[in-house]
Amino acid sequence: MSTYSSNRGFWRGLTLGVAFFGLTLFLNLLTLRPGVRGESIAVSKAEPAAGKPLPKLYFGSKACASAGCHEKGQVTDPPLLCRGDELDRFKAHDRHADAYNAMTGKLGRDILKRLNLGEPQTATDCLACHSVNIEKGATKHESFQLEEGVGCVVCHGAHERWVGSHSLVISRSAFRILPRETKESDYGMTDLWDPAKRTALCASCHVGNQEQGKFVTHDMYAAGHPPLQGFEVASWSNQMPRHWQLLREKPKVVQKIQGHNSSVWEESQLMLVGSAITLRESMRLLASHAKTASINGEMLDWALFDCYACHHPLGPRSWRQNQTHPGKPGRVPLKTWPMVLPGMGEKLLGSKEEVDQLTRELENATYSRPFGDPKKIQLASEKIAHWADAIAKSFASQPLDQKTGPKLGSELLKIWQAPPRDFDSARQTGWALLTYHSDEAALGRNINKEWLKFLEGYESGLDLKLKTGRGVRPARGEVANPKQDDSPPDQFHPDGFMGKLKFYLQEGK
Amino acid sequence: MGRLFGLILGLIGLSSLCSALCSQILPSPKPDLPSSASSTEPYLVGAGSCSASGCHNANGHSGTKGSEYSTWIASDPHAQASSVLGSDRSQKMLARYLGKSANTADPQKEPVCLSCHVFPDPTLNQGSYTGRFSAADGVSCEACHGKASQWVSAHYQESWKTLSSAEKSKFGFVDTKNLAIRTRTCVPCHVGEKEMDVNHDLIAAGHPRLRFEMGSFLANYSSRHWRQTDEIARDPNHSWNIWTTGQVITTKAALELLSYRGNQKTKPWPELSEYNCAACHHSLSGFYGNLPSHGKMLFGTWSNLSGNLPAYSPLNSLWDKKAKEDLGSLTRLMVKIGSHRAEVGSLAEKLAKKLDHGTSHLAPPPSPKEVRTWIEAYEGSIKENKINPNWDQDTQTYIMLRAYFQHARDLKKEVPPNLENHLGELQDDLTSAFQTNTNSILHSPENYDSKLSRKWLQKFGEDLR
Questions:
Q1: Cα separation of B167 and B171, whole Å?
Q2: If interface means Cβ-Cβ distance under 8 Å, which residues of chain A face chain B?
Q3: pLDDT digits (tens, 9 = 90+) for B267-309
Q4: CA-CA distance, A481 to A471, in Å (whole number)?
Q5: How far is A478 from chain B (nearest CA, A)?
Q6: Which residue in A93, A261, B287, B359 has its CB near the most CB atoms, within 10 A?
Q7: pLDDT tens-place string over residues A61-105
């Protein structure tokens, strides 16, 4: 208790209602804050000065489970904004909880050994995504454990201010009604409801972010890291599985606070904004690598290129040789999947096809020599990142409603009028269609279940149900080695896919 | 087909004319050799000039004397070198290479194709040529034996036989009996040089990868128009010497080509055909960190610039200490795969020069003990994980052992009874590493398991004991 009384200054800073101010002060002395097994939490005394970043504090998930908040069975006061069983879902199904364990299993240990990276707990290159690297000056709470992998605060914000404010009985009702932007700027609670912010956060690991030290290099792949798959935020969020409710699933009163419009294609909007942000992030990653490569006279890291451009069998009757690729044979293309959905989205907006020209510029830079000309690639990718940022804003500002929503499905199918470039590109469209149909179902519109079954199922070859996610989580430390016969990208044949697709679309009619 | 038929008819006509001429010329007791100091450059006279039935067109068994032309035209793939350019496959290949539509690409007019497929004069189809040579002959007699304008009417005369190899060369005649000279006639096309370059762009467009080794190419040259027994009669060490000669000249050619590729700023760089195909071109399933390349390019695995050469390899004695350092630097630069083309170019040039006189003193064939010692040392290095041989390197080892074995057999020496069987089984392993769909035979197989080589090395070691 004495810990709390010494901390009044901190709470005084909260922008709560003036009428509650005295009461808050009093109740702060009496109310349990989230802690571990009833222990108190040592909170930094430093109060943030205006404009300075908030001090960071890394909690472990025990802090979120305690006091009966986010683990079911203990939910004492069912909160309005959340479901209360977040940690149950996270611990039982979400592979983010296994991110660190992946480093300590056989494959993880082998990779660390091959790369000479030492022990898992000190391998910062890996921890950047498989757990978190705690910055200098940040505090680690005693509940924090690397073993929790990508735990709660990694995404929600490792700041003491919001953790306290949102949980205290006395402060939380006032905290809840604050705008999301204020919760983030003044309290450090990351605004994950903003599709752009959420996607940028996910993409920092699932695509890479050079500034944050998150990048799966070709050396890591060669040492055994499984290939990063093409990322799509809406369907991947669903398949974590989601430990939150969509706005359309939330109580009416919350929908009212959040200004929810019940006739919008909610997930599709996230998908559209997310696709543009994912493209932006992948182009920023490329630009930053290209800049370094061009200064040092080096090649770009091969991890930035399309894996299957090189890693394909050489037999003369391989499907690859029947595909039409832009550019020159023998020149290595970049990953193309991030371009698929934003390109479609631009057409949906009815704007000029600027991206086609930008894409050509990047392709020319890439094909001018084997592994591309870094200087030209830097310029071209910066332009595309700029374009993607602008188009993300357009997607975010124009809600997909009764007028624009229905067009999305047909625009998505138009992508498949030509065979997909590769497995990852085909999946982007597949996931976007699943997302679109999920909205359609929620809005009570007719959907073709047979077609959905094909799309999601084994037969399409798209493997849209992620192996990470909903399945039964392997035992601790047992992250399965990818099996030899379990490699859809190698087995995906665009021509065969087109044949089946046509069949199902005809059957569906 | 019609064209080929026409060609054959024409050739029959031409040959009967020529045989008539030959029968008049041959009895002449005192032939006049043309002056070697002829002011005009030798030029091509065409395969038809050799096709008189009394000369080289006897239509006998393949390889018999007097049937050289008939052997070539009937069964030698070199005779098809030009006609394949007319195929649909060639047209599509060139279209992909040039980024053109298929109907605008014409391999029969494209210097990049003609430079080897109508060797040695790719300008033949350009309209300026008026001689008797036909581009349809592809790679014909004079491609290897030299432009014949100055020696064609002299070489069947008695006095020609009295001339030395050097004297004959003044007429433009190439002494292909000399193994070094013979190998040098093969490498411009089969390894590549300057504008005759099968680079990665061309391979990606569909051209088979070049992978040349002189001894095995000759051994598998079933349409050979000479007798191997004659070769062994001339040089009892022929089977061994053709391997050593090939090693030096092929490696030198590979270095010269690399130097050209590095120095020629207009050519693609990095040049990916310098590397082991399977280092990149392997499936991603199932390997996960277990590939010998560990995410790096493998350089020079076929051209003997990497790997563990036996002490009796002619290259080993040619690389002095400095050259070995340079080889190390070259490999490091190539594996680093950055913008070091000029450095690579000059290093490769320097190394190629080291091999300039590499075939003048070739070491004699090793004793079984020497071979066994090397095999044991090689096996030891594999066991200790110092080297991890790939398909290219194991195939080179196989070829070397095959040359050694063939040489012993030529001399009717006692050969360990199991050695031939074991070599055959190794050959099966090496070839079965390829996927079964035929044409892929020209690529480094991704499926080759390098552990196999240990099994065979052990057996060879035992065989030679």
A1: 7
A2: 107, 110-111, 114, 218-219, 221-224, 226-227, 297-299, 302, 307-308, 310-317, 321, 328-331, 369-371, 481-487, 489-490
A3: 999 999 999 888 888 777 555 455 556 788 889 889 888 767 8
A4: 16
A5: 16
A6: B359
A7: 988 988 778 887 655 555 677 888 899 888 888 889 989 998 998
